[in-house]
């Protein structure tokens, strides 16, 4: 058996289930609300998908952030505020990053594994999942789930108009 060796922080965070602190860092300086969720809502690494949160609620967020395990720090903060404004928390949604090489980029497998009823594509083009084209801030109702296509948080940070469009439609989508 060969040993895996890496110093890539994204790979290490994906492979490790505990938060590690380097020399001189104070405990808590690297942690985030997403890393500190309850045990039921932690990253699952032994399943077909590596994800965070709770897949049993039927609410799934799909993103593709190649530079982060889930979100950039700024996007994570915006995501948590968005959830909180709708009386949701990280404990009652699931988040999967398709940039993680472990996660299949296959919509049928996503549907089988997560069994969602509401899916939000955050900056993930529907065509990349072999879905029909869905305009930004619009949704498509399927037999089992409704897919809401919107911008990534970075796109919304750069354009306040995109942020407003997202928020107005997302509130309707999530409560319906």
UniProtKB/TrEMBL annotation:
<protein>
    <submittedName>
        <fullName>Uncharacterized protein</fullName>
    </submittedName>
</protein>
């Amino acid at each position: 058996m060969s040993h895996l060796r890496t110093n890539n922080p994204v790979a290490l965070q994906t492979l490790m289930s505990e938060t590690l602190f380097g020399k001189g860092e104070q405990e808590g300086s690297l942690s985030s609300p997403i890393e500190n969720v309850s045990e039921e809502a932690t990253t699952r690494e032994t399943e077909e998908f590596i994800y965070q949160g709770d897949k049993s609620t039927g609410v799934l967020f799909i993103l593709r952030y190649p530079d982060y395990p889930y979100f950039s720090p700024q996007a994570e903060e915006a995501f948590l505020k968005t959830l909180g404004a709708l009386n949701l928390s990280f404990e009652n949604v699931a988040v999967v990053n398709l940039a993680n090489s472990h996660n299949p980029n296959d919509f049928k497998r996503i549907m089988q594994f997560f069994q969602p009823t509401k899916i939000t594509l955050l900056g993930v083009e529907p065509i990349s999942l072999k879905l029909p084209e869905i305009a930004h801030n619009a949704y498509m109702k399927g037999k089992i789930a409704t897919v809401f296509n919107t911008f990534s948080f970075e796109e919304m940070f750069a354009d306040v108009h995109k942020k407003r469009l997202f928020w107005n439609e997302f509130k309707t989508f999530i409560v319906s």
